[in-house]
Amino acid sequence: MAAASSKNWDLRRLQQHIAGGHQKNIYFLYGDEPYLIDESLRLLKEAFLPKQAADFNFDQFYASEIQGAQIRDSVEVLPMMAERRLVVVKQAHLLKEKDWLVLQPIIENPIQETVLIMAAEKVDKRKKYYKALAKTAAVVELKTPFDNQIPNWVQYIAGQVGCRLDDDAVALIHQLVGSNLSEIKNELEKLAQHSSEGQSISAKQVFDVVSRSRIDSIFELADAIGECDKAKALSILVNILDHGQNEVAALAMIARHVRILSQLKEWKRQGLTGPKLSQKVGIPQFFLHKYMSQAQKWDKNRLDRTTQALYETDRALKSSPVSSHIWLENFIIAST
User: Fold this and answer.
1) Which of 107, 111, 141, 211 is most buried per CB count within 10 Å?
2) With contact defined as beta carbons under 8 Å apart, do 258 and 225 qualify?
3) Is the per-residue pLDDT at 3 higher than 50?
4) Domain 146-210 class, CATH top level
5) Phi, psi (5° rounding) for residue 195?
C-alpha cells in the first residue's frame, strides 16, 4: 500500500488510528483514487456515526451543491440523543475561497461534538485553509498505488467483498483490469456473486466472469505491441479509444506489458524458469510461453528506447495541449 509523506497519513495509518479507539474532530481525505476515498469514508462512518438516532446525527453534502455557511451550520448543530454528530463533505476541492473563509473558525477551533470529514480529489497546500487543516485535522493522503502494490490491493478488496482468489487469479485480475482499484472492486464483486462461499476463485473463473470486451481489448493491444505489429496495434488503439478507453490508462497497460517483457529477460538470464519465473514477474503460468515468445523480439536497445518513449508519452498526455491519441499513435510508431 502506498506510503504517505512524513506528516500526512495513509489508509493504513487511518485504520490503525480507528482500531486504537482514537478520534479527531476533523478528517481531511484527498487523492486521485476514488476507491481509497470511499473506503476511508466507510471506515470513518462505521467508527463514528452514532448507532443511536443515526438519522438525526448525520449529514452528507456535495461541495458543488452547497455553500460554506450551510456546512458550518450543520457542524455546529448539537447531537440528538448521542455523543456526537457526523458531517461528510464530498468534492471539497470544489469549495470556493469564500466558503473556506466561512469554515476557517471551525477548522481552527473544531467543534468537539461533531466529526467533520472532508474528501477532495486534490488540494493546494499553499492555501491558508490547508495550513489550518494541517494543524487540527488528520490529513489522509490517498495516492494511486504503485503497480507492484496492486496484487496486495486485489487481495484486500477481495476480502472486503467476500471472496478468495488463488495466486494466478490475482495476477490475472491485475493483468486484465490494471491498477484502477474501483474497477478492480467492480470485477471482484461480480466474481463474488458467481462463486460459492469459502471457495478459492481460479484464473479460469476470472476469464469466465470478467468483461469479455475488457479482456479482448487489453490483450489484443498489449499483444500487438509485444509482437511488434505496428499496423495491428494502431488499428486496435483507434478502436478502443473510440469506445471510451482512457488514454492514460491505456498507456499504463502498455507500460506494464513492456515491463513484464523486460523482467522476463532479466530473470531468465539469472536462471529462473517455469513457475518460479512466472511468479517472480507476476503473470499466470499459462501466459508464460506467449510472453517469452514476445520477449525474444525485444533486445536491450528496444526496451531502453521504449521505456524512454513511455516516460515522454506519459508526461505529454498529462501536460500537452496536443490531442492525446496523437501521442499514443506516435509512441506505437516509434516503439514497434
Assistant:
1) 107
2) yes
3) no
4) mainly alpha
5) -125, 155
Which residues of the chain are in CATH 1.20.272.10 domains? Answer: 212-336
Where does residue 58 rank: exposed (0-12), middle (13-18), buried (19+ CB within 10 A)? Answer: middle
Distance CA 63, CA 273 (A): 54
Q: Thinking of the domain 11-141, which architecture would CATH place it in?
A: 3-Layer(aba) Sandwich (3.40)
Mark residue 251 as left, alpha or beta (left: phi above 0; alpha: psi -120 to 50; beta: remaining).
Answer: alpha
Amino acid at 162: G
The CATH classification of domain 212-336, taken from the options 1.20.272.10, 2.40.50.140, 3.40.190.10, 3.30.365.10: 1.20.272.10
What are 116's strand-pairing partners?
A: 26, 87
At 193-212, the pLDDT tens digits run: 888 777 889 888 887 787 65
DSSP code for 146: P
Among candidate residues 86, 96, 77, the one with its CA nearest the CA of residue 118: 86
Residue 67 predicted with pLDDT over 60:
yes
Residue 25 pLDDT = 97
